[in-house]
Every structure is written in C-alpha cells, then in structure tokens.
Design brief:
about 325 residues; binds magnesium ion; Cytochrome Bc1 Complex, Chain D, domain 2; homodimer; Cyt_c-like_dom_sf (chains A, B); electron transport (chains A, B); binds heme C; Cytochrome c551 peroxidase (chains A, B); binds calcium ion; globular; disordered N terminus; 2 strands; Cyt_c-like_dom (chains A, B)
C-alpha cells in the first residue's frame, strides 16, 4: 500500500517536473522563481516600490521599471529627477537575472551590483547611498524587516541592494506559449508562428538571441553588416573594457516579452517590432525580409510573452520625525 | 431540522452583521466595500494605474495618489507634468467616496466628476479628454474590457471617468482599531488612546471632524479663532460659490489614516501630526494643549488607521500602432 502511494507520487512528480523539453532547440524554457528567503524578497519589494530611495521622494525603481508595463516604461527615454531625460532606453527588469551582466554595456556584474547605481545617478534618483541608508534606518518598521530578513540588526547599502536584487530574482515570466511548445505541447503555436521560428533560426537570429532569455548572454556589435545610424552618444561595451574592438558592442537584449517592451534598441528609436526586425535583418544579417517573412517573425516573437509576475502592491511603512525630508524642488 | 439550520444561520448572520455599534458616538465605523460590477472595478483599476492617461505617458493617478502610501505621495506639493509643483497638497483617495464633494474647495460633486480633472490639468497630467479617449480606444484589450464592463461597445470620457470612480469606490479602510472599539471590542484601545478620544470630543474637534470619515462632510473656515498664516494662494470654497463668506473655507479633511497622509493642511506646511493638532487647537478652538494632551490626541488619531486596500498590480494592455505616442519632452 505504502509502495503504491509512493509510486503514484513519483508518477505525479515526473509529470510535473520532468517535461519533455526539446533539447535540440537553441532556446530553453524560463524556470519559475524559487524563493528561499521570502522575508528578504518581501523587503526587497517594498524598497523597489519606495520613492523615498530618491532625493525627490517621488521616483522609485517602479517609476521606470513599471511592473504594470512588463518592467519598463515604454518611453524612448525615461524621466528622471527634475524631469531629466535618461540618456539610454530603459530595459525591463523581467528575467534580468538571466543577463550575463547588467546594463547595456554590462558594467554591473549582477543585480546586486546594479541596484546601487540608479539611486545615486543624478539623472535618475539623484540620491546618495548615505541618504538612502539614513532614510531607511529612520523607519522602525524597515529596521525590523531588515533584522527578519538578514538575521541580525543593521541597515547598510549592501543589505538594501541585496534585498532589491532578491526581489528582482523573482521577476521571471515562465509559461509563454513558446515555452509550452518547447515542453511538448504541439498545439501551443500556430503554423505562422512556427514558420516565424524557423525563419528566426534559419536566417541567423539565434546566433545572438539564444538560451532561456533569447539573448542576454553576449555582447555583440550593433551594425555588423551595415552601420547603425543614431544621434545617441552611447558607445556600448568599450566604455567598460577600453578596448576599441568593443566600440558599439551592446549586450544583446533578451527577447522575452519583447511584445511589451517597446520602443526598441538602446536609443529607443524603433517604435514597433516590425521596424526592429527589419533593422536587425538588414544590419546584422544583410538580409531584407519580405513583409510576409517579417510578419511571421513578429508573430513568433509574440509567443515569447510569459506569465507576468503577480505583484500585491506593498504598503510602505510611514516616515518618522528622524526621516530626512524629500527634496523634490530643491 | 431545517428550522434549526435556519436558526443557526440567522444567529451567524446576526453575529457578523449586527454588531453593537456605539450609536451615541459622533464617529461611525467605515463600511467595507461592496462591489456590484467587478469588471468595471477591474477596468477602473487599470485606468487608475495607466500612465498613458497623461500627455507624457509617465504620470498616472497612482503617481500622486500612491496606493503604497495610503493614497497620497507624502510630498508637500506633488510633481506634475514637466516637474511642475501642484499648487495644493494632494489629499488621499482612500475613503474619498465619503466626501460630501471632491477637492479642497468641493468644486467636483462626486468621484466621477472629479476624475476628469487631473487628466487635463496642465500642471498634473496635461492631456486632453480627446487624447485620453484616443489612447484608450486604440488598445483592443481596453475596448473589450469596456464592452464587458458597460454591456455595449464604446469608449468615451464619461465611461473612462465612471470606471475610475468605480475603482475608487472600493478604496475604503475598514477595521481600524478605533472601529473595533466602536463595535464593542473594549480591548481595542489603550487608556491613553481613550483619553485622547475624550479630549478630541470634549475640546470640540468633533464639531468639524465627525461621521464615518471623521471629517469630509462640511466646509469650515481654516482659522476660526486666529487667522492661518500661509504663502499658499488658495482661497478655498469662495472659488466655487463666489460668496465672500466662503473665503478660506476648506473641506474638512477626513482624519481616517491621518497617521499616513502627512504632511498636513492644504499647503502641506505641517510636517507632523503633533504640529497639526497644535495648530488646530489654537486656530480653531483657541486652546493650547499641553504636550501630554497633544500626545494623547495624536495617539487617538493613530487608531484611525484601517486595513489598507489589497491591490494586485494590474498588467496593462500594450499600445498599438494606432496609439498616439507619449510626449514626455515635447
Ligand atoms: C529614471 C529611470 C530609472 C530608474 C528610476 C531606475 N532605472 Fe533601472 N535602468 C534605467 C536605464 C535607463 C537603464 C539602462 C542604463 C544603461 O544600460 O546604461 C536601467 C537598467 C537597469 C537594469 C539592467 C537591465 C539590463 O537588462 O541590463 C536593472 C536590473 C535595473 N535598471 C534595475 C533598477 C532598480 C533596482 C532601480 C531602483 C533602485 C532602478 N533600476 C531605477 C532607468 C531607470
Ligand atoms: C550579431 C548579433 C545579432 C544578430 C544576428 C541579431 N541580433 Fe537582434 N540584437 C542584437 C543587439 C546587439 C541588439 C541591441 C542593439 C541596440 O539596441 O543597439 C539587438 C536587438 C534586437 C531587438 C530589439 C530588442 C529590444 O528590446 O530593444 C530585436 C527585436 C531583435 N534584436 C531581433 C532580432 C532578429 C529578429 C534577428 C534576426 C533577423 C536578430 N535580432 C539578429 C544582436 C543581434
Ligand atoms: C500630479 C498630481 C496628481 C495627479 C496625477 C492626480 N491627482 Fe488627484 N489630486 C491632486 C491634488 C493636488 C488634489 C487636490 C486639488 C484641489 O483640491 O484643488 C487632488 C484631488 C483628488 C481627489 C479629491 C480628494 C478629496 O479629498 O477632495 C480625488 C478623488 C483625486 N484627486 C483622484 C485622482 C484621480 C482619479 C487621478 C487620475 C485620473 C488623479 N487624482 C491624478 C494631485 C494629483
Ligand atoms: C471649525 C472646524 C474645525 C475644528 C473645530 C477642528 N478642525 Fe481640524 N481641520 C479643519 C479644517 C477646515 C482643516 C483643513 C485646514 C487646511 O488644510 O487649511 C482641518 C485639518 C485638520 C488636520 C489635518 C488633516 C490633513 O490631512 O491635512 C488635522 C490632523 C486636524 N484637523 C485635527 C483636528 C483636531 C485634533 C482638532 C481639535 C483640536 C480639530 N482638527 C478641530 C476644521 C476643523
Ligand atoms: Ca525597450
Ligand atoms: Ca456626493
Ligand atoms: Ca496631506
Ligand atoms: Mg487634481
């Protein structure tokens, strides 16, 4: 009897966990989030939504990486402190854990290293790490949560960024129709979408856009066959390595949820997926797609939209008399 | 048998619904939200969170009435389009359904009439009703939701504002400790808090702050005994009635969740509850509270914090090629 139950349980496990993934494909499914420290994730979520991490008291991570808008803001250039335009298009935070490094030029090695940047960027949140820590530790409910999440008292910038990164680790989008197809559900994609996928593989897009993120795992030149024309001053990876060969190399963006993360490219100049696909074909592969081919690739790309994270809006603990005042108009 | 079940059921109903409310008190408990058209509320929630209702594509109702911050932004003056300061402190949307009219001067008769205002206010969302409608109806998923919510095709400003108002109707905060005490739970308040409540009644605060909202149901002069000194140009109710007797009359703010809606007064000049209570005592009642009395009143006011609405962040449907582009820097 016991054995039979065990057998049934194992059977169930096999059905759930060992799905027939198409191992030969250059794209792999997105794994769901594993939460090991829920208190840390919950704290990170609060900090992610807290505008008091900015000098003005009005800009949070969620202002530019809006989780109602697939982790971005759908603007060509984001709006930072005092309405300054951010100089480069804002990538999504969804699945950003899969990136080989963070930022278009990869200058931050991981999410924790990245999270300290925007707070002190004068065109973004315009604060200082000292001010961020002073704000957070002036709020007793935060201090208590830090203790619960880290096991000891103390608020510092290391812990603030670790908590935010832990939250971002959970922002994954599994169960796209494409992933269902990868996992063996033949009815998940239409004929057109499959033809688009075949074109995506056969014409060479997968050389750069592959892996679970469909990108995010290498730096590549923007404009391989033909140069990319833009007035945006960003020079890409060379800013990090100093190596002239890296000039105009950018981290290949992941194409997960790309239907939702318009406009496209580091300068945000491509308003539609059709335009982005056309440009990629010409500049990266020297190939001009017919309208029909372009439409098929776009149809395929739209199958990469996964389940968006379900976020219950956090209730932020109130400031106290010790909390430094926001300076929106200072 | 059937009768007995009925009796038990009735018994249960009585326990749940007919609670021993202290009828003689000048403050009544907040009733939980009743949702009659969930599709309309869900649509309204999306619109409330949608920054595309602004010209810039970056400002939503939630930017200033942040539901992570008790429906306000905790700034003296909010930040509107192009970082313009809003000229008057932003009230919370929580329980705003209980207001006799909306805005500090009551110029909108209800939530629906109010909701059309900020979209077209040049220092707030800086859009036009035409543009808002064009944006919304260019998005097929919205069009479908409008049909589901209203029973027929069509997007117009009347429906947009009706949906937002329906969502706002659900933003109530029942179950504060004070309400539990009103409903008969004697252990819900401490001795200090009860003494604060006694002072609040005996010294005359309840003359203006009463009813379920603890305010929100009349316009009163700011500075009854002594004039209020401020550099803020707002003149209050006179702007609506043209009657000089209404000069410097403001809608009495509700004190529900007042612990969370700092800073205080129409000019946002009182940073703490202690300051606001002190000013009210002197200017409205000609009374100077001792430090201890002030602390007791503040302790009472903090018992008015209720359950904050649990909001699952909506996922907004993507724009299309027909959607007018946001103009953040135009
Ligand atoms: C004012 C807009 C703005 C704010 C606020 C902002 N970001 Fe960003 N974020 C950007 C832009 C722009 C980039 C790209 C910058 C670059 O690559 O040089 C970026 C990049 C990132 C990346 C890298 C993604 C990738 O694919 O490389 C992550 C992760 C991220 N931000 C998280 C955050 C967090 C966490 C916060 C809050 C602490 C935050 N951002 C606040 C605009 C913003
Ligand atoms: C040689 C490498 C390479 C190849 C091949 C390539 N891409 Fe890209 N792709 C990139 C890089 C690098 C970027 C970022 C360019 C930038 O923003 O300046 C990019 C950006 C994109 C974007 C915009 C993503 C965003 O969020 O901004 C799309 C869509 C895209 N590629 C699709 C394709 C398709 C479809 C193909 C095949 C037709 C393709 N790519 C081929 C490297 C490549
Ligand atoms: C840029 C800031 C800003 C934005 C955006 C904004 N509001 Fe407001 N809201 C205010 C301010 C300031 C007031 C008070 C104005 C007055 O009384 O003259 C106010 C008043 C209100 C009130 C009246 C509350 C009361 O107690 O009288 C409601 C309800 C409200 N807003 C809802 C909304 C909705 C719905 C939206 C989006 C469609 C919105 N607001 C967008 C700043 C903003
Ligand atoms: C004569 C009417 C009146 C009396 C009496 C009165 N208030 Fe007020 N109260 C108001 C008005 C009107 C305002 C708004 C004033 C403004 O913003 O300019 C207000 C504002 C407040 C605020 C700030 C709320 C906010 O969100 O900005 C608090 C707190 C407050 N009152 C508490 C009290 C207390 C405590 C007492 C008794 C000591 C009291 N009030 C007596 C009319 C009154
Ligand atoms: Ca983009
Ligand atoms: Ca009314
Ligand atoms: Ca206030
Ligand atoms: Mg307004």
């Amino acid at each position: 009897m016991k054995r039979r139950i065990l057998a049934i349980m194992l059977g169930a496990c096999v059905t759930v966990f060992v799905r027939p993934v198409r191992a030969e494909e250059p794209i792999q499914p997105i794994a769901p989030a594993k939460v090991t420290n829920p208190a840390l994730v919950e704290l990170g979520k609060k900090l992610y939504f807290d505008p008091r991490l900015s000098k003005s008291g009005a800009i949070s991570c969620n202002s530019c990486h809006n989780l109602s808008l697939a982790g971005t803001d759908n603007l060509k250039m984001s709006i930072g402190d005092h309405w300054q335009p951010d100089p480069i298009n804002t990538p999504t935070v969804l699945n950003s854990r899969l990136n080989l490094a963070q930022f278009w030029d990869g200058r931050a090695k991981d999410l924790k290293a990245q999270a300290g940047g925007p707070m002190v960027n004068p065109v973004e949140m315009a604060s200082t790490h000292e001010l961020v820590v002073n704000v957070v530790q002036s709020i007793p409910a935060y201090a208590t949560e830090f203790k619960g999440a880290f096991g000891s008292d103390g608020v510092d910038i290391d812990r603030v960024t670790a908590a935010i990164a832990a939250f971002e680790e959970t922002l994954v989008t599994p169960n796209s129709r494409f992933d269902k197809w990868l996992e063996g559900d033949k009815s998940a994609l239409t004929k057109t979408e499959l033809e688009g996928y075949a074109l995506f593989k056969d014409s060479g897009c997968v050389a750069c856009h592959n892996g679970p993120g469909v990108g995010g795992n290498s730096f590549q030149k923007m404009g391989v066959v033909e140069p990319y024309k833009t007035s945006n001053p960003a020079q890409g990876r060379v800013a990090v390595t100093g190596d002239d060969a890296d000039r105009f190399n950018f981290k290949v963006p992941m194409l997960r949820n790309v239907e939702l993360t318009y406009p496209y490219f580091h300068d945000g100049e491509a308003a539609t997926l059709e335009q982005a696909v056309e440009t990629m074909g010409k500049l990266q592969l020297g190939r001009t797609f017919t309208e029909e081919e372009n439409a098929k690739i776009v149809a395929f790309l739209k199958t990469l939209t996964g389940d968006q994270p379900q976020i219950v809006l956090p209730h932020l603990p109130p400031s106290t008399k010790k909390t430094p005042q926001p300076q929106p108009f200072g």
